[in-house]
Amino acid sequence: MLNDPDNTRADGKPTESPQFAAQTAPSRSRRRLVTGMTGGVGVLLAVQAKTALGTTVCQSPSAMVSGNASPHPNPPPCSGGRSPGFWKVPQKFNYWDTIAVPATFRPEAGVSICTSGMQGLKLSDIVTQGSPVSLALPGASPTGPLIAPPEGFWGMWAVLAFPTEFNGGQLMRHLIAAWLNANYFPSYPITKQQIAEMWAATSGGGTYMGMGAADVISYISNMYDINADVAPDPDLCKLK
């Protein structure tokens, strides 16, 4: 299995609870801080996201930016979703069901339900691309070092698995994971519409609610694996 840093989260825990933050930093001052920061919005949002999600309080991007960290009396459960490292593994493709279509591979690639990880898969092992990136990110047309595949587009799985091979691949990768999370987890705090808006705003170098591309990646990735249990995988190998 490839060593993917997205498969694990940092062990560090938030040092400040939302209650403490609300007592020591009034919302008006917080909003001034957010609007006055240059290139630091994502850091603030990441801290707020970890704090809020750690107490199961779901906050949309707008709530994060506004500094609305006050807990509700009965906060809803919230899921931070799974990382690209989860969604890219062929043995997890059953979680794509009804959401999107993953890639298929040459028999020689050795993809099997009884193996784990990526098993040395390459872009050239893809037979069919599955769902295009544009399904999640309207207008996205990733370009890479290889000629366009027969379908004329690169699929979601290709970008999830090999983001460095594509222009803007890291942003696409995390937004695709967010889109899959938004479909799978009912309590995921970012909607598919917001994901599309994040892509449209930041892919060309702009900002979404004050966040650039790096800030969007930080905001999404800092939520991974929080309250993100999935249904157990069936042990298909033992059913043979």
Structural overview:
The chain has a two-stranded antiparallel ribbon with strand order 1-2. It is globular, with a radius of gyration of 19 Å. It is mainly alpha-helical. The N terminus is likely disordered. It is built from nine helices and two strands, in the order H-H-H-H-H-E-E-H-H-H-H.
Reconstruct the topology from this structure.
Layout: H1 18-24, H2 27-36, H3 41-54, H4 61-66, H5 84-87, E1 104-105, E2 126-128, H6 156-161, H7 169-184, H8 192-202, H9 213-221
Considering the chains and any ligands shown, give keywords for the structure:
single chain, 240 residues, mainly alpha, 2 domains, two-stranded antiparallel ribbon, 35% helix, disordered N terminus
Let me know the largest β-sheet.
2 strands, antiparallel
Order of H and E elements: HHHHHEEHHHH
Query: What is the strand content?
Result: under 5%
Total strand segments = 2
**Span between termini:** 23 Å
Oligomeric assembly: single chain
Helix content: 25-40%
Class based on secondary structure composition and strand pairing: mainly alpha
Order of strands across the widest beta sheet?
Answer: 1-2
Shape: globular
Mean pLDDT over the full residue set:
76
Number of helices: 9
Number of domains: 2
CA gyration radius, whole angstroms: 19 Å
- The low-confidence runs, each spanning 5 or more residues with pLDDT under 50, are 1-5, 7-39, 46-57
